[in-house]
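INFO batch 0412 | record 1 of 1 | parsing
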Amino acid sequence: MNNNNMDKINLNKDQKLVVDSFYKVKTKKDLNNFIEDLFSPEETLDLAQRLKIARLIFEGKTYEEIAAEIPVSSSTISKIGQVIKFGKGGLVIACKNTA
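INFO prediction complete | emitting tokens
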């Protein structure tokens, strides 16, 4: 088996572990505690910024307006825009009630 297939198999198992772990958390308080335990402050900030970018895209802001509001690279903004257009819909679900 080549290395790419091995990486894909492990990624699927690892993603299932992550999804199952988040699914077990039932309350906002427990979810907050889980996030604080799991992620460093920098990782949490990165995730929060990506969610903010998605929300602003859904609000119709331009990439330039988003860059002025959130200190990230234009490539990060573009990546989130591409995920919204061509991804699996997860950001749409997460952000649909916030825009």
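INFO post-check: The radius of gyration is 16 Å.
INFO record closed
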